[in-house]
């Protein structure tokens, strides 16, 4: 498993890295201190999860620490999934992005999620929250703070160091195996064309499946689905369909 940690504070990166490796001992954690370093890394290799602190500089010599830099990078990641300029899949960011920020008001979190984040973690959160976000991202779930989802949200488990949540399957959710596959990939932030490539089906069919899923879960868009799964704390099991051979051959960490 390979994780990219994007934050300009070396001490914070070291702390999060130690926390991750204490639970996921096989994890390879790479670090970037600015948007330029992050782009260089994501263009050269694939990641399973990306942690992004929004308040980062654009380069190692810049002092422009504003959330706009992180938001721009997040939007770039999203656009690479929706309309990649380069057919090379290594330059298309498909990993779920967990955003960290000191700001956690609902309006701000809404903006972050609409720009392509899969989960949001307030910077002042306890270690258990970060682990919960990672576990949900790896399992196809979503994590959002209580400020963003209101009452009824599921608090992080105190036993995260020992046992992750039990993944759900198609029967648990009342969906077909194909709908389940599309739901899991969509919750990870994959655009319809990317889901179609992974499952080797027509993009038009993917959009039809998504519309059907929105109806089944009583939401109107992907953001609604993300909010629903964040609120319930549900995580999904593995895909029931094989990935596209072309995408499966994408360079990955041998330890994953």
From TrEMBL:
GO molecular function annotations of the record: DNA binding
One record GO biological process: phosphorelay signal transduction system
4-aspartylphosphate found at: 53
Keywords of the record: DNA-binding, Phosphoprotein
SMART domains documented for this protein: HTH_LUXR (SM00421), REC (SM00448)
Residue ranges constituting the Response regulatory domain according to the UniProt record: 2-138
Species whose genome carries this gene: Pseudomonas putida
Pfam family, one: GerE
The name this protein goes by in its record: DNA-binding response regulator
Keyword DNA-binding (UniProt): yes
Cited InterPro entries: CheY-like_superfamily (IPR011006), NreC/VraR/RcsB-like_REC (IPR058245), Sig_transdc_resp-reg_C-effctor (IPR016032), Sig_transdc_resp-reg_receiver (IPR001789), Tscrpt_reg_LuxR_C (IPR000792), WalR-like (IPR039420), WH-like_DNA-bd_sf (IPR036388)
UniProt superkingdom: Bacteria
